Amino acid sequence: MLSKIKNIATKTIGNLILKPYFKIRTQRLIWLFLNRNSRDLFRTNPPSLNETQDKTINTLFQEGIAETHLDELFPKENKLEKLQQYALYLKNQSSGKQTSKTFLTYLLDPKPELDFENEIVKIALDPKVLAIVNSYFGMLGKFYYFTLNITHPVPAGTEAEQSQKWHRDPEDIKMLKMFVYLNDVDDEAGPFIYVPKSNLGNKWNKIFPQRPPIGYYPQERELEKVVPQSDIKKYVGKAGSVIFGDTTGLHKGGYATKKERLMLTIGYAPSSSPLAEQYTYSEEIKKRLATLTPAQKYAIILKPSKLNTYILKKFRKFFKRG
Questions:
Q1: What is 67-112 written as a DSSP string?
Q2: Starting at the edge strand that comes first in sequence, how are the strands of the sheet with 65-69 ordered?
Q3: Radius of gyration (C-alpha) of the chain in whole angstroms
Q4: Beta-carbon count within 10 A of 197 CB
Q5: Beta-carbon neighbour count of residue 61 at 10 Å?
Q6: How high is the mean pLDDT of the chain?
Q7: What are phi and psi of 26, to 5 degrees?
Q8: Exposed (0-12), middle (13-18) or buried (19+): which is 49, by Cβ within 10 Å?
Q9: What pLDDT band is residue 321 in, cutting at 50, 70 and 90?
Q10: Residues 215/22, Cβ–Cβ less than 8 Å
Q11: I need a surface site. Which of 20, 47, 149, 257 has the fewest CB within 10 A?
Q12: Global pTM value
């Protein structure tokens, strides 16, 4: 009885308080106001862009997603080889970590250490990458997440689940993830699939709209009734392919049928996002702060509001019950 009363109370609070709270926070003018300091810092610390960065940023604004390659972002730095060697080391060191996504094996801990010598962290905080992220956000953003996963093939006829289905990420009205393929990914390896122009202010933004802090999972095959197949893109690519995608746009992926996919994912969010960092800090960070750029410092030091983070967690619990 007490459990039932608690569930009703939680649902009532969610409907009457939490939904309006996040709806107000993500109204365009309020969102800009909440991010005013990081926008000012971006204006006073504008990045210098090369041709690859400029092209990537322009495509992001036009499509919500952009493709490039590690060799274009980091010429002559052998980033792909270093990441592949690191992934092989992790595979040999452990059996991986299983999560609620049964089709994935995580090679990193759920909250890995932020180690500046780690090849993934080097890429995530590289000024060239942050310049793309921050230019798309129009502010200094925060780096909150990185993971390295193996996507396993599923038996024929297996029903798609979770991120294998069409959805929008929920936490803010702009998000950006950097996906890096560490092996060749074709149709059989579960490529990332996206509806270009489904990000904020674009052609398909209003269909199956995002509801921060809750995403949107349209019913199976409903999206294809609205969006022509010609407006849906499947991102296959060679090892080293890089995809920058605004994941508030409609996307899915990881439905591998015959081949494994080895993919690095790095997540960035606007400064006002309620997302907390999903990594732990090492003592080395304090020693290195003086050597970091303003964008790098902001990306890792900015702490989200504890209240907003708490509300987000509570709302997710309510959503799962509801």
A1: EEEHHHHSTTS-HHHHHHHHHHHHHHH---EE-S-TTEEESS-SS-
A2: 65-69, 241-245, 176-181, 261-269, 142-151, 104-106, 97-98
A3: 20
A4: 18
A5: 14
A6: 89
A7: -100, 10
A8: middle
A9: very low
A10: no
A11: 20
A12: 0.91
In Å, what is the CA distance from 207 to each residue of 110, 145, 183? 32, 28, 33
Alpha-carbon separation of residue 265 from 19, 64, 143, 149, 180 (angstroms): 29, 17, 12, 8, 7
Mean pLDDT (whole number) for 215-238: 92
Tell me the pairing of strands 104-106 and 142-151: antiparallel
pLDDT of residue 97: 65
Of the ranges 36-50, 87-101, 267-281, which one carries the lowest mean pLDDT score?
A: 87-101
DSSP string for residues in 252-279: E---BSSS-EEEEEEEEE-TT--PPPSS
Helix (H) or strand (E) segment spanning residue 299: helix 294-301
pLDDT at 322: 39
Beta bridge partners of 143: 268
DSSP letter assigned to residue 167: B
User: How long, in residues, is the chain?
Assistant: 322
